[in-house]
């Protein structure tokens, strides 16, 4: 039977079966949304049962219910709208997971991979398409579709916990480079086809793109800092600001003739500096994106696929076959070559290939533009759809298969070590409006170690019975702390306590609940009678058998741009100093901040050597001579988090290697955040 006859018969059977069920696609908003939610729930679960990524299930479900399948849903303006939002969210979350510091550290690798994964597909694609009869301009345009790629499998690597690994940073940076270059090729080819490739086009595109990128990466963080400083305690306002930033930057990209997806990625890169990775705000963004908008995009991609169109025209199979083969080969070669050059093992190479092989976002945008101006024909569109289907199925499967085999260090290198501060973090709470930063710090430490947050509120036992109002306030405070922890998906066990004194109650609870650390808030100064930090905190430090972090956050901790660990030569010899190093590294990682180490040497001493410290080569260490307070105050910058190390004397008396240095620094820099870490000796 001829292909045309098979297609006609299939269409007749399909239309007859559909007509027997319903005459038109479902249009009532409630059942439409209900069906999509059912797909989002059922499809990933079914495919994970057969060891295939849930992303594949969403795409294939879109094929089945779409206009070229059972016709249950039409790809109308609502689906297109939500799918577009999902696509922008996908690229935005990719940017959120991309640290500019990581990109700088791996800039050479990102540039090499980005250029390789652009040049190889362009060369192979142009030659292959011209080999089957395409003209030069159409061949170049189709090749640009091979060069670009969509990070479709990004939710998988995020779930596997390997987002901050070197291979992911390299791939994300390479994606930015190759997608921008591919979209520039699209703009140039379209202009050439229309005869408008003039000098004025180049004079507008290049400067506007440079200015746009600079304004995004420089301006968005500064506007965000101002907004979070002004409205940092309104969680709804923070989330709305992030969404507004995403769409403003994405729309602005269109004004400079760049695809909105590139703007969404740049918006994520710019704003990620303001949002700690384990914060409640980041969790809300990822939850909304991965649960709602990104699945909409995947389903909408599936609804574009018409499987039967491949056999309506015999040459369509040739075009589709060539495009699928070239797309896979042209993405594997750069991944393999770059991986070998960078010394990566096969698992990392396959993850790089799996992430970069998916064709969806930029490909659909480019081929749609080209078809609308009649630069390519229907066969090319058909082949593109087949390529999208194959690569969108292959990408998450490959990424999942080899991502699970990556070395454990790649997934856990940034986590706190077992038995660390984050196992069971005890936080006394008194007022949610002032304890917000304490809870955020505790959540970061607890989530980094897969530990538990222990918010504690103590009512003082007096001669008179405790009033119902006091108990109600205690319950409200603990409920608020519990809500904040749940918003960040952190384990939490609230503790209500009645005790004779605050410090004794905290020490007893820490012992009973096997706390690994205690976090206390400090106002930044004390009276003479209150000793170093104030009577209660001093006694907590003296009584505690676990580390105590005395913290001071004048501003939301999201503003932290640099973790600044200052220490003396004497401190490098105490046993707890390595714990301070580990704490500083962990905080810098989770807050997406840089790390600076400062060693202050006494004027009469000799320059200290850090021979016993095991530090990565990218950590900056500076040595200065002079007075500790004066030198630290001179080098502090706005948005620094100053970390100091303290100690407890064996005789039980509070002892600080700094004396009154924390208070002096706090008075000189009232806007600087501080953590004084006391580790039992």
Summary of the model, kept short:
By secondary structure, this protein is of the alpha/beta class. 60% of the residues lie in helices and 10% in strands. It is elongated, with a radius of gyration of 29 Å.
Q: Helices and strands: which structural class?
A: alpha/beta
* Unreliable segments of 5+ consecutive residues: 13-22, 408-419, 527-533, 648-655
In whole angstroms, how far apart are the ends? 85 Å
CATH top level of the largest domain is Mainly Alpha
Shape: elongated
How many domains? 3
| Percentage of β-strand residues | 5-15%
Characterization of the model:
The chain has helices at about 5-20, 30-50, 55-65, 75-95, 100-105, 105-130, 135-145, 155-160, 165-195, 200-230, 235-255, 260-270, 280-300, 315-340, 345-355, 360-370, 380-405, 410, 430-450, 470-485, 500-510, 535-545, 575-590, 630-635, 660-670; strands at about 425-430, 450-460, 490, 495-500, 515-520, 550, 560-570, 595-600, 620-625, 640-650, 655, 675-680. The protein is an alpha/beta fold and about 675 residues long. Strand 1 (about 425-430), helix 19 and strand 2 (about 450-460) form a beta-alpha-beta unit. The protein is elongated. The chain starts with a helix and ends with a strand. The model is unreliable at about 15-20, about 410-420, about 525-535 and about 650-655 (pLDDT under 50).
Topology:
Layout: H1 3-21, H2 29-49, H3 54-65, H4 77-96, H5 100-105, H6 107-131, H7 136-147, H8 154-160, H9 166-194, H10 199-231, H11 235-255, H12 260-271, H13 280-302, H14 314-342, H15 346-356, H16 361-372, H17 378-403, H18 408-412, E1 424-428, H19 432-448, E2 452-460, H20 468-487, E3 491-492, E4 495-499, H21 502-512, E5 517-521, H22 535-543, E6 548-552, E7 562-568, H23 577-590, E8 594-601, E9 620-625, H24 628-635, E10 640-648, E11 654-655, H25 661-668, E12 673-679
Helix pairs in contact: 2-3, 3-13, 4-12, 4-13, 6-7, 6-9, 6-14, 7-9, 7-16, 8-17, 9-15, 9-16, 10-11, 10-12, 11-12, 13-20, 14-15, 14-17, 15-17, 16-17, 19-20, 21-22, 24-25
